Amino acid sequence: MQPDIEIYLLSCSNEKIIEWLQTSFTIIEEKKLNAGLLSLKVATAETEFEIQLLQKAAGKRFTSVWFDSDKTPWSDDVECAKAAFTALDCEVRCNIASWSETEEQDPDQWWHINQYEEGPFIWR
Question: Which residues pair with 43 in a beta bridge?
């Protein structure tokens, strides 16, 4: 289990992302921290934690979704990315190192899922 999870969604609105999140979590509080940064306090049957949505992360068209908890429905970033792709039908990227933590791992190597393929790639 990872201490947190982060995925990047290509050209996906916060509204659509929040609809997806509501299928797994109850949103207790929503705070706009600044332009492009939205913080959600969410609850599950077991715990409460924060999810942050950062627009224009890693390029102007990506939104970062960061789950500040190890108590999500997914065991790692890739599992979360697969669920997001299925629900949102947009390209999803995540850090491959989060699920394969080897010392020789290339920090530019990522995992992506889109309508054409799924697998590792170099994100520069």
Answer: 26, 48
